[in-house]
Amino acid sequence: HVQLVESGGGLVQPGGSLRLSCAASGFTFTSYWMNWVRQAPGNECELVSSISSDGSTYYADSVKGRFTISRDNAKNTLYLQMNSLKPDGTAVYYCAAWWTYWGQGTQVTVS
Fold this sequence. Notes:
Blueprint: E1 3-7, E2 10-12, E3 18-25, E4 34-39, E5 46-51, E6 57-59, E7 67-72, E8 77-82, E9 91-97, E10 101-102, E11 106-110
Parallel strand pairs: 2-11
Antiparallel strand pairs: 1-3, 3-8, 4-5, 4-9, 5-6, 7-8, 9-10, 9-11
């Protein structure tokens, strides 16, 4: 069955860094653009970043220059390196295979 398992969230001070990981299984990882989506309390979901199988990327303006998305197709794993974190980065971060399959989310708190 399909699984997307995020890890790496936590509490970090403003200006700090975190690296999120997402281990995927149960589907053909290389067939999907992979997304990182976040949802802050009371807010709608926001697409943070996406990456194609061959490495093309998209970043929301709010994270450009600070976040880096990457993937290891051999390990079926997606990553998000988050630097210079700001308090408005506090949210649950979800890994998703396009908009089809979703993980359970990992909490990131910047405070």
